[in-house]
Design brief:
about 350 residues; Alpha-Beta Plaits; Ribosomal Protein S5, domain 2; about 35% helix; about 25% strand; 10 helices; binds alpha-D-galactopyranose
């Protein structure tokens, strides 16, 4: 294979998995994700429009540099691209090819990685926070679901070898080293989409809780427990306790107390199941089975819920199924030859 410079560049964005802290980001709370070693890449060169093909999709995307309504774009995967184009209104386009090693629709943020990669390929300039905010707006516009900032922020701000203690209110990231003697394993359980799911209801229920007791981020569990409406009360109790669990989990990792970390993961899952009601019987059964496996410290559903993935913290080699993932740096642009060299291609 020729190694001569091609003039192409590659925008590369990793997937993410959240270790603990779910459904806390859209009330400015704490989450604990990591960017993982699966990537979406766009190999591109400048062009007048935005023209992308994908190794995983039959139909290409072709868009002008101004898009008003990303939700009307076809094919469907083009909506993620269109959301970014509509937010950026770029001064030039790109022609390129998308490939990914992130399982599509598998709960590891393949669509968010695409959005971040598109923004970089279109020449985004700014901070990690600005990149995360732009691609979150793009996602909200193209999907119509008011998702939080965790996914895009972890993809943009990943740190190799570290999980990210992320404050979604202050928009800060504190990298916490992952212990060498533990593995993070992700298992895909069931396909899901947040469009049309109860995700939006949960966002509204949290807003209702905040109307009664103020910001959930600073609320106490006693305040959450004082909410009149029983459903809103349960949602608030989850969020308040989950924020604390993120802090406790980060402390447990720092102390090398993996058993405590595992227990916190299970407590988080049970709370998502019982109080937040975003799990499913199939996910519950998967978590239960994992937790009964020797060498597994803990497991939980991860991400938006209603399907998707479970994540487990294990002794090395404890599980033979699933994807062992490693924490990597956030999204970046690489020159074509540099990328090939790094991968020994
Ligand atoms: C989805 C959203 C995130 C976050 C999680 C739940 O992944 O995109 O913003 O709310 O659900 O923690």
């Amino acid at each position: 294979m020729s190694t001569a410079p091609t003039g192409h560049r590659i925008a590369r964005a990793p997937g993410r998995v959240n270790l603990i802290g779910d459904h806390t980001d859209y009330t400015g709370g704490l989450v604990f994700p990591m960017a993982v070693d699966r990537w979406t890449e766009i190999r591109f060169q400048p062009a007048e429009r935005v023209e992308l093909t994908s190794a995983d999709e039959p139909d290409p995307v072709s868009l002008p540099l101004r898009v008003d309504d990303p939700t009307s774009v076809s094919p469907h995967w083009g909506r993620y691209v269109a959301g970014v184009v509509s937010e950026m209104a770029p001064s030039h386009g790109i022609r390129g090819q998308v490939t990914t090693t992130i399982p599509i629709g598998g709960g590891m943020s393949s669509s968010h990685a695409l959005e971040v990669a598109v923004a970089l390929a279109l020449g985004f300039e700014g901070t990690v926070v600005e990149l995360a905010q732009l691609t979150q707006r793009a996602e909200n516009r193209s999907s119509g679901v008011p998702t939080g900032i965790m996914d895009q922020f972890s993809i943009a701000g990943g740190v190799a070898g570290h999980a990210l203690l992320m404050d979604c209110g202050a928009l800060t990231i504190e990298p916490v080293p992952l212990p060498d003697d533990a593995e993070v394993v992700v298992m895909f359980i069931a396909h899901r989409t947040l469009v049309g799911s109860a995700y939006t209801d949960r966002v509204h229920e949290c807003a209702a809780a905040e109307q009664q007791i103020g910001p959930l981020r600073s609320a106490s569990s006693a305040e959450a427990a004082s909410i009149d409406d029983p459903v809103v009360r349960k949602r608030a109790m989850h969020v308040v306790a989950e924020n604390q669990r993120v802090l406790d989990f980060a402390a447990a990792l720092r102390n090398g107390d993996l058993s405590a970390a595992g227990h916190l993961m299970v407590a988080s899952h049970n709370s998502l199941r019982d109080l937040y009601e975003t799990s499913t019987p199939v996910m519950d059964a998967a978590v239960q089975q994992l937790c009964a496996t020797p060498g597994v410290w803990g497991a939980r559903m991860t991400g938006g819920g209603f399907g998707g993935c479970v994540v487990a913290l294990t002794q090395p080699g404890a599980l033979t199924d699933g994807w062992v993932v490693h924490a990597v740096d956030g999204a970046t642009i690489v020159e074509d030859d540099e990328a090939r060299e790094a991968e020994g291609r």
